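ok trying again, last paste got cut off:
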Amino acid sequence: MKTYLDCIPCALKQALDASRMAGADERLQKKILDEVCRLIPRFPLNATPPQMGAEIHRLIRNLTSNSDPYKKIKKDSQRMALDMYPELGEEVKKAEDSLAAALKIAAIGNVIDFAINDSVKIQRELEDISSHEFAIFEYDKFKESLAAAHTVLYLADNAGETVFDRVLIEEISTGKELCYGVRGAPVINDALEEDAKEAGIDKSARIVSNGSDAPGTFLESCSKEFRDIFLNADVIISKGQGNFESLYGEGYPVFFLFKIKCLPVARELNGNVGDLILKQEG
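nice, full thing came through this time. structure:
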């Protein structure tokens, strides 16, 4: 997905938020914003937003000497989601269509994104699962592809959201070789191997690092092991906006599962902010 002009002020705000979470004082925050303003013109509009985001967050980590500014927030969101896990499992058990229910729960979990949302809004949205419906729901395609698949790769997005992913993974993992792809190094609040293990993902899937610190999935920056898994998977489930922004339009056989959180992505899909999406590439 290309970068929209709307992405630029969003990137600056995210840089400010990250610098504050990293413990930067006001003088260093100003220096970081100055450096980000010099960095942004290097990215043409046909670059993806996560490509710009990767460079910005590397800059922040370097200037603040804080390798993981979002660490506390990730831990807090993990605890909040784990508290909800028993309730989420019950939602699936009582549903007429357990797979559809698990997909909805995983998509709703995508609201856990402190790069965009605040904690009060997150809690409010997660409390009423039944009120959410998919705006794009290519369910028949997904079921058909899943039924024929032997290998499944699930691309993780955020910490905390991993618990919601677990609900879907437990629903689809029987008889499948399932890998759960996480980031190779801290970036924003994206899930790492430790977050996936804490969520219990390792009980149903093999956790694999993609070897990259980008807030999306760029195969050229990923490890050979991860690239091989990606290119040979029968089904790829791509979770979250960062993965959508980096993979949409690249031609890979991917099912995108996420909640639209901003106007640029809404424009790409002719949708609205807040829509839940299950859409196959192409």
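cool. The longest strand covers residues 177-182. The two ends are 13 Å apart (CA to CA).
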